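Quarterly update from the structural biology core.
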Amino acid sequence: MEVKRLTAKKASVEEIVKGKFVKKSGFESSYVLTNLGRRLSRIRALGLIVDKFISADERYATITLDDSTETIRCKVFINTKIFDGFGSGDLVDVFGKLREYNGEIYVMPEIISTVNANFETLRILELEKIFKEQREKIKKIRELQKQTSDLAEIKTAVKDLMSLEDAEGILEAQEMIENSVEEKVVSANDVKNKILKIIETLDKGEGADYQDILIKSGLLEKSIDIAIQDLLETGVCYEPHPGKIKKI
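Predicted structure, tokenized:
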């Protein structure tokens, strides 16, 4: 089986680090799935080197890139010579594969070259064009989803508008975003249920004191405020006195 070299896709650092790393096995390449539905395996990222590290035995080294949207580390093992001649303050264009370790998405660089500021301006314009085209593809997918929920039909209908990989990436990203929203809803409900139990425990007749709820919950005050406001607005709880919360 012939393994084709993956095309290096131009990407912003923010797009990469805010994506979800999808681990594949066998001949399938792992990739970062972005919110715009782009699958990034081999990338081309441009940024300013803001930090460089080489281990004492020179068998491990990193450089940190900053493209003004986010920062990402490029890591090499054994072959640290690839970073020779580069240092903090250099504007570089990096080709490499994306990897993940301990929750950190990083670049395993293959080629690094120094570029000038004009190249940076060009890259910004290129990325704007790429993102605009991707949003147009998403719009096409959503229009088709209003007509049918059959994924096979959608993929067939868009074959003249985009590649199958693009369509599958967008559909996968939609599912990822929907699952994330569901997780947040579950999390919010968990907070409200916890607060209700605390109120029942603390209420001796006049309601539970807000500060006591905050201390006993161990949660962030912002999370508590949002949950209590929702409980009050939905009529689950009320305030018999200022600063007191009582379950109905």
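The CA atoms of residues 61 and 76 lie 6 Å apart.
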